[in-house]
Amino acid sequence: MGEEQGNLKTATDNNELKILGKLCLQAVINYGASWCRVCNQILPTFQELSKKFPKLSFIYADIDECPETTQNIRFTPTFHFYRDGERVDEMFGGGEERLYDRLWLHS
Description:
Layout: E1 3-5, E2 8-11, H1 14-23, E3 26-32, H2 37-52, E4 57-62, E5 78-83, E6 86-92, H3 96-106
Parallel strand pairs: 2-4, 3-4
Antiparallel strand pairs: 1-2, 3-5, 5-6
Helix pairs in contact: 2-3
């Protein structure tokens, strides 16, 4: 199911994103795009941070590969934070420190 690197899973289509989201009790989903410069800059940090917060499940979803489930995403990157299947927070844009702080808050 998708590519996996450490604690980071990549959803390769709409169905996989739905399944991954339901399987995780605490998760952060990074909605990005291959053509987005900021997304490409923050993705390696997102991957590294997935190793520092093992209680959280990290999921990357490319909005072009998952158009049905990402149709309400208006900015890339967008990070959604879930607890027990419910979205509890979101963050727009990059920023390594901002992302670290938000992950720390939710871990």
